[in-house]
Amino acid sequence: AAATRPERRNLENVRRGQYEALKVEVSSNADREPDFGPKKVGPAGATVIGARPFLIAYNIYLTTDDVTIADKIARAVRHSSGGLRFVKALGLLVDGRAQVSMNLTDFRKTPVARVVETIRREAARHAVAIHHSELVGLIPQEALVDAAAWYLQLDQFEPQQVLETRLFTAVEEPSQVTDQDDSSAAIIPVDSNFLIGLASASPTPGGGSASAYAAAMAAALVSMVARLTIGKKKYADVEEEMRKIEQRSEVLQTELTNAVAEDSSAFEAVMNAYKLPKNTPQGKEERTQQIQTATLLAAQVPLRVAQNAVEILEYTQTMVLHGNLNAISDAGSAAALAGAAISGAALNVRINALGLKDKLESESLVEEIGIVEVRAEELQDQIHSQIYQRGGLYPE
After folding, report:
1. What gap in Å lies between CA 94 and CA 97, rounded to an integer?
2. Residue numbers in the chain where pLDDT is lower than 50
3. Strand ranges (DSSP E) for the chain?
4. Residue 27, CA distances (Å) to 8, 33, 48, 265 in order
5. 317 phi/psi in degrees, rounded to 5
6. pLDDT in tens, 348-358
7. Distance CA 242, CA 280 (A)
8. How far apart (Å, rounded) are the C-alpha atoms in residues 208 and 349?
9. Sign of dihedral through CA atoms 317, 189, 250, 303?
């Protein structure tokens, strides 16, 4: 489906003649010119990239060593010789047994069970049977379920009737958060993929992404406390302010969630820039420029995260002082997460600023993050004291 012209939809046409023919014709025959890249083939060969339905490599062994029978059956089932659509087949002798070797190129339109039964009937015509079959590589679960339903003659069968399918669906579907009263709860699964990536040996995602994630969680907690305050008679005098904070914290949560990926992308750009060639003066100059541009972005993203996190701290203070008292510990948790986000983001700003050759730019970044850190420390000290005072958490 990715072919640039109709005759290239069939991989066999592209590969015809193999390496030896392609090497000669790619520069002399317009029909063999590559879609992309030079009109020559080096010792590494050529690469074909395409898009198609999942291909199933599937072989059936017969109760005979007569490869001519396998050849006849292959001709009967393969599409190119009048057989089944989306089936490519050859007769081979493998380990002393005749084999019908196949590629099933669209199992939804020509199911595996139909292919097997056709071969079974063709084999019976030659007084042989199927000995066993062989799967090469992977097969979609859907193909196996379809085969099972066909052989069991299940009427009106639905894939959701498979127990494991129902269980996996229940696990993978995120819980929906709705307007609920204080007595109900929503269970939200942790993004395990992000945590797995964070724990891996890969440098991305790293501390910058984790800081953005922590700040996003802080923003989410601010939204939560605001919503728990809105609509309560006891807090009617602060409802308008809470609505404004709720709306702004939602925007911040989205920006910070996006920053998780942005931080990883920025650092990956730095690593890619260092891999650029430097064997010519022009290449060396371009490499240096790319490194500086990428490094600057890698410092700007966590700076923006830290600035947003300070704004969250300011909203958190409002929640601690005027929000629903029953959720004061949640507001405190938001403050802790925002503080951690600022600390982590600041480290990323400073370490990337060190890599900038433009000293004015570097000093400006360090100065800006310093202002954020001072404001954050001031807010955290105030919030810590206010939580204990309003919440009555001081020990006797």
Report:
1. 5
2. 175-189, 395-396
3. 56-62, 87-94, 97-104, 130-136
4. 17, 7, 17, 38
5. -60, -40
6. 999 999 999 99
7. 60
8. 9
9. positive
**Is the distance from CB of 104 to CB of 110 less than 8 angstroms?**
yes
- Which residue bears the tokens 């009109």? 39
- Nearest alpha carbon to residue 314 among 266, 224, 376, 244: 376
Beta bridge partners of 101: 59, 90
| DSSP calls for 155-195 | TT--GGGSHHHHHHHHHHSPPPP----TT--------HHHH
| Tokens representing residue 321 in the block | 């002082």
Residues 6+ apart with CB under 8 A from 374: none
Q: What's the pTM?
A: 0.54
Q: Cα dist. 35→22, 27, 42, 44, 49 in Å?
A: 14, 13, 16, 17, 10
Lookup result for tokens 């570097």: 362
Instruction: Determine the pLDDT at residue 326.
Output: 93
Query: Is the Cα dihedral 81, 83, 85, 89 positive or negative?
Result: negative
Q: What six digits make up the tokens of 123?
A: 């084999």
The identity of residue 245, as a single letter, is I
Work out the burial of residue 117: count CB atoms within 10 Å of its CB; fewer than 13 is exposed, 13-18 middle, 19 or more buried. Answer: middle
Q: What is the largest CA-CA distance in the chain?
A: 94
Cα separations in angstroms, 193 against 188, 205, 216: 14, 11, 17
* DSSP category for residue 162: S
In angstroms, the CA 243 to CA 370 distance is: 31
Backbone angles phi, psi at 348, to 5 degrees: -70, -35
Which phi and psi (to 5°) does residue 98 adopt? -70, 135
